[in-house]
Design a protein that fits this description.
The protein has about 425 residues and is an alpha/beta fold. Helices cover about 35% and strands about 25% of the residues. Helix 9 runs parallel beside helix 10 and helix 11 packs antiparallel against helix 15. It binds zinc ion (ZN).
C-alpha cells in the first residue's frame, strides 16, 4: 500500500494550522457575543456562500447543537451552540422558508431565496426531527459555482472530444452515472446548455429542478399530486422535443419509455447511480428495459466522480519523485508535448489551509460502438462490456484521476482517498 506523505500539505503535517483548516466561524462565539438570531443566521449564510460551501447542518445532540459546513465535499465542524440558541436559529430558518413553525414532529422541506454580496442564491432547507431536536440541513444552490462549461468541469483533451461527439448524435441514449454528490447535475446542465442552441427543443424532467436554465423547458416530478416520471415523459413526448433529459429513472415504465424515445429520433440524457460506466447499463436493464432496445439506443455512458482540486494560490511543483512511477501508466495520455507537473498544495488562507480549493470532475466516457451495442443487445454482462471498452482504450475513472495528478490538478493522496480501484487501473 502506498503511503504518500510527500503529498501532505505543510499545515496538515505540522498540525499548527489544523485548527484553521476548514474553519469559517466558531459557533461558540455566537452565544458568547449574545448576537441576535437573524444576525447569526446572516453570518453563517454569508460565510458559507463566500467560501462556496455546498451545505450547512445544525445537528442536535444531547450536549448542544453542532454546526457543520460541507466544503469541497467534506463536513468541517464549526463548533457547538447551546440547544436553546440552536432552536431559535432553526425557528428563524423555518420562518424564512415558510415552514410550519409549530410543527416539531414531522419532517419538513422548504426554500429560501437570498441575496448575499449582490448575488441571488437559492437555499433548499430540510428539517428532520431526531431524538434531540430538529436537525436542519441547508443546501446552497449557487448558480455561479454550479453552472459551468464542460471544459471547466475537468473534461479535457481527448475526453472532451469524445463527449462532444456523443451529444452531437441527433438521437439515442446517453447515460450519466455516479454516486449522489458526484457532480452529475453540473455535467448534465453543461451538456444541456450546449445542446440548447436555439435550433433544438430541449425538455427536462427533474426532481427537483435545481437551476433555471434559459432556453430549456424544465418540468418537475410532483408525487404528491400524482405527477410522476412516467406521466411526465408521456406528456413530454407530445411536446415535439429533440432532446430530453430525465433526472431519475425509478420504474419500469419510465425505463421502457426512455429507451423507446431514444430509438425514435430523440436524444435522451438520463442519469443512474452506478459507480462505473458498465453499471449504468446494467441498472437500466435491471429496471426492466429490454437489452435489445437498450443496445439499439445506446450512444454512450459518462461515469464520474469528484476529487479536490489543488489550490491555485499555494501549489508548488514537486520534483519527479518515486510517486511519479505510480502514474507512469497514464503518461502516454498526456497531450503531445505536454510535460508532467506533479504538484502539492502548501496550504494558505485561500484554501483554508487545506491545500485544496474547489473540486474537479474525473470522468470515464464510454462510446457505444457497433460491438458494444451488439454486446448489450444480446445481454452480455456489464463487466464484460466494460472490460471490452477498456481494452479498446477507454480511459477509466482511475486513469483519468491519475492523469489529473500528473497534470498537477490534484494529488495522488486525494485519489487514494476518493477513487476506488485506483491502483488496479480501474479494470
Ligand atoms: Zn492555498
Amino acid at each position: 500500500m502506498l503511503t504518500s506523505t510527500i503529498m501532505q500539505p505543510e499545515s496538515a503535517k505540522s498540525g499548527a494550522a489544523t485548527v484553521a483548516a476548514g474553519r469559517l466561524f466558531n459557533a461558540e462565539d455566537f452565544a458568547v457575543a449574545d448576537l441576535p438570531v437573524p444576525e447569526i443566521w446572516d453570518r453563517i449564510a454569508t460565510a458559507a456562500l463566500r467560501e462556496q460551501a455546498s451545505d450547512v447542518h445544525f445537528t442536535y445532540q444531547s450536549d448542544g447543537v453542532y454546526v457543520g459546513v460541507r466544503l469541497d465535499g467534506r463536513v468541517c465542524p464549526q463548533g457547538t451552540m447551546p440547544a436553546e440558541l440552536g432552536q431559535r436559529l432553526t425557528n428563524h430558518v423555518k420562518v424564512l422558508a415558510n415552514m410550519d413553525v409549530g410543527e416539531h414532529r414531522r419532517p419538513q422541506d422548504g426554500h429560501i431565496s437570498l441575496t448575499i454580496d449582490n448575488r441571488p442564491i437559492d437555499l433548499r432547507i430540510s428539517l428532520m426531527p431526531t431524538n434531540h431536536g430538529e436537525d436542519t440541513a441547508v443546501r446552497f444552490l449557487d448558480r455561479e459555482n454550479s453552472l459551468r462549461e464542460l471544459d471547466q468541469l475537468g473534461v479535457s483533451g481527448q475526453q472532451l472530444r469524445t463527449l462532444a461527439a456523443l451529444i452531437a448524435a441527433p438521437s439515442g441514449l446517453v447515460l450519466v452515472t455516479g454516486a449522489t454528490g458526484a457532480g452529475k447535475t453540473t455535467t448534465l446542465y453543461a451538456l444541456l446548455r450546449q445542446l440548447a442552441d436555439g435550433n433544438r427543443r430541449v425538455v427536462t424532467i427533474e426532481n427537483p429542478i435545481e437551476y433555471d436554465l434559459p432556453g430549456i423547458s424544465q418540468s418537475q416530478v410532483n408525487y404528491r399530486i400524482g405527477v410522476d416520471c412516467a406521466t411526465l415523459i408521456r406528456s413530454v413526448l407530445r411536446q415535439d422535443p429533440n432532446v430530453i433529459m430525465i433526472g431519475e429513472i425509478r420504474d419500469q415504465e419510465t425505463a421502457a419509455t426512455v429507451v423507446r424515445a431514444a430509438n425514435s429520433g430523440r436524444l435522451v440524457l438520463a442519469t443512474s447511480h452506478a459507480a462505473y460506466a458498465g453499471g449504468a447499463i446494467e441498472s437500466l436493464i435491471a429496471m426492466g428495459a429490454q437489452p435489445h432496445f437498450v443496445g439499439r439506443a445506446l450512444r454512450g455512458v459518462v461515469a464520474q466522480t469528484l476529487v479536490r482540486r489543488l489550490c491555485p494560490y499555494c501549489t508548488i511543483r514537486l520534483e519527479e519523485t518515486a510517486d511519479i512511477a505510480l502514474l507512469e501508466d497514464v503518461r502516454h495520455l498526456l497531450e503531445p508535448g505536454e510535460k508532467p507537473v506533479l504538484s502539492m498544495g502548501r496550504g494558505c488562507p485561500h484554501c483554508r489551509h487545506t491545500g485544496y480549493r474547489n473540486r474537479l470532475g474525473v470522468f470515464e466516457i464510454m462510446t457505444a460502438d457497433e460491438d458494444i451495442r451488439a454486446m448489450v443487445s444480446r445481454g452480455t454482462p456489464a463487466r464484460e462490456v466494460y472490460d471490452y471498452a477498456i481494452q479498446n482504450r477507454m480511459v477509466s475513472i482511475a486513469q483519468a484521476g491519475k492523469l489529473a495528478a500528473l497534470r498537477g490538478l490534484t494529488t495522488v493522496e486525494e485519489l487514494i482517498q476518493n477513487v476506488s480501484e485506483i491502483w488496479s487501473g480501474g479494470a
